[in-house]
Amino acid sequence: MPEWDTVRLDFDDDVATLTVDRPDRLNALNVETLHALREAISEAESENARVLVLTGAGEKAFIAGADISHMQDLSVAEAQEYAELGHEIADMLEAFPGPVIAAMNGYTFGGGCEFALACDFRVASEDAVIGQTEIDLGIIPGWGGTQRLTRLVGDELARRLIFFGERIDAQDAHEIGLVGEIVAHDQIDSHVAEMAADLAERPAFALQAAKEALNQAHEGTQSAGLRYERRLWSSLFGTHDQREGMAAFLDDREPDFE
After folding, report:
1. pLDDT tens for each residue of 132-188
2. What is the value of pTM for the model shown?
């Protein structure tokens, strides 16, 4: 198993937990950490993890944003390269072949918020504070925030959060649909672990197909998305999990998925 200085990747059966481990810097994303994240996500996929959890080390932060000291003097070309790296990681989270859960256990700003937006589920601790805060730096979200936030909370709310750089608490984030649920700060790890274990027991091919179809809903027209859904749905027939799931239903027993 590869090792990195700023990222940890741990496995518990079919669940991989990816932890940004820079608590002294509130888990801010420097270039080293971004490269480590990219490698760790690939490693989790190559190890056939069914569920991926993304979180941050320490008691204060999930991911408090990108490395401002690195960004300060970038040229346009260098900024483009940096943006592409962040986009690549967000895209990897979004396309990971199983559910990805963001365990937002504290400050979730800038690039950290953008990575959370790329996950399938966002679970926030009651202490979490969330924001696309780039406007205060004279820039805009550059790792997908303008697109994913708009689709999640709607156009005007996204504009308010991005134009004003608002920092909102977990309750407000839940009310606008930015996070799916809030849990006590000292229970977030156990709650997400239980959630991930539950997901890992479900049929992997069906989960992957569902995720691809749901992601496709944000691409192109509805009619194209419906055609894509039909293809994915029919492709599951003949798999072990489809046969087993339906047989178990008809036999009134628990299914034994692969």
Report:
1. 999 988 899 999 999 899 999 999 999 999 999 999 999 999 999 999 999 999 999
2. 0.89
Active site residues: 114, 134
* Backbone φ and ψ of 7, nearest 5°: -140, 140
194: enclosing H helix or E strand:
helix 188-200
Q: Enter the tokens of residue 253.
A: 């027993």
Note the helical H segments in 201-257.
Answer: 204-216, 222-235, 240-251
Q: What are the structure tokens assigned to 155, written together? A: 């156009």
In terms of Cα–Cα distance, which of 139, 52, 157 is closest to 96? 52
At 115 the three-state DSSP class reads: helix
The CA distances from residue 157 to 23, 26, 127, 232, in Å, are 30, 26, 22, 33
Q: Which range, of 71-80, 146-155, 225-234, averages the lowest pLDDT?
A: 225-234
DSSP state of 96: -
pLDDT at 125 over 70: yes
Q: Which residue has the higher pLDDT, 220 or 76?
A: 76
Whose tokens are 């496709």? That residue is 216
CB 34 within 8 A of CB 86: yes
For residue 117, with 0-12 CB atoms within 10 Å meaning exposed, 13-18 middle and 19 or more buried, which class applies? buried
